[in-house]
């Protein structure tokens, strides 16, 4: 059984109490079954509160985009795991992982749209060399990522929870083992170029606010 489905089943069993209308026998049987499932899966009560959500990233872990995904993880009190086939997993107390995956999807689509518009513009099309165009696109993307990261950190500053992040780190180690640290690609000081200015402006135009939490809650409620 999928680990998240298993945790959902255990949580449901633990909700079967006499206060919720179950008989003493039903409550005891449910608690015993929950304990059995937790023991078999190697879960403790703290881990039941930890969830994971996957974000399918087309670019690899060494892409400059990874800096944005890890920034989003930090903003939502999550940690990440990268899998070459599945993408990025966000691990943390709910609904952090779901919000992180949702934000990544929003930002990815915004970046893809902005890059298409930039490449269709005169400033990019006037560049003749492939190498020059490639550099301009990189400068555009880096500036957009930096601006989005700044805005996200400002928006979620009040939600930062050191204890929750520590719990997420412990859960990741328990779920995936020690793993291997991936060095994030560096973004050097942004040069003042037309591409950088355009990327910064594009990052500033993406609608981001705490409404993403409300939007996500609405989606999740509609799914239940």
UniProtKB/TrEMBL annotation:
The DUF7168 domain covers 64-177
Alphabetical list of Pfam families matching this protein: DUF2786, DUF7168
Report which superkingdom the organism of origin falls in. Bacteria
**Residues in domain DUF2786?**
5-45
Q: What is this protein called?
A: DUF2786 domain-containing protein
Organism equals: Pannonibacter tanglangensis
